[in-house]
Design goal:
InterPro entries: Ribosomal_uL29, Ribosomal_uL29_euk, Ribosomal_uL29_sf. By secondary structure, the chain is mainly alpha-helical. The protein has seven helices and four strands. Helix 3 packs antiparallel against helix 4.
Length: 165
């Protein structure tokens, strides 16, 4: 979303001539029910591939822009006919994509943090099946009692030799 910069007098003159309400977030014309000329819509859908390269600040900024644009479109939809329904759909899906990337990156950071810790949060542990989760761990499986160790040392597997004639 791109906001054009105008001086205060130009904006006030515009609103006086068009009888619009001045809003801090967006400028909406209440008489003709269209977005003012000062507001420019962003173009196209957001591609998930492009989002992965961005950092968290850029993603949150883009999310805020998409949300304000969605608000604009909803105002337009109420004011006029449903011509903007497809655009609203695209913006909602774009918001979902941005949120998905933000959450995935956050989870990846948490996985790195808990990588070598003894305990990890339940939602970061592997899901698997109930039976697999209750199995003994490899360390627990390989443990041997002291008595068993002594028995194997003192009484090893016997080797038999067969004499052939």
């Amino acid at each position: 979303m791109v906001m054009y910069s105008y001086d205060r007098q130009t904006v006030l003159a515009f609103h006086l001539t068009h009888q619009t309400k001045i809003s801090s977030q967006h400028l909406v014309d209440t008489t003709s029910h269209t977005t003012s000329k000062l507001f420019k819509m962003s173009s196209g859908k957001v591609k998930a591939g492009a989002l992965w390269g961005k950092n968290k600040d850029d993603l949150t900024k883009q999310l805020a822009e998409l949300k304000t644009e969605l608000g604009q479109l909803r105002i337009q939809k109420v004011a006029s006919s449903g011509s903007k329904l497809n655009r609203i759909h695209d913006i909602r899906k774009s918001i979902a994509r941005v949120l998905t990337v933000i959450n995935a990156k956050q989870r990846a950071q948490l996985r790195l943090f808990y990588k070598n810790k003894k305990y990890a949060p339940l939602d970061l542990r592997p899901k698997q099946t109930r039976a697999i989760r209750r199995r003994l761990s490899p360390e627990e499986k390989s443990r041997v009692l002291e008595k068993t160790k002594k028995r194997t040392v003192h009484f090893p597997q016997r080797k038999f030799a067969i004499k052939v004639r």
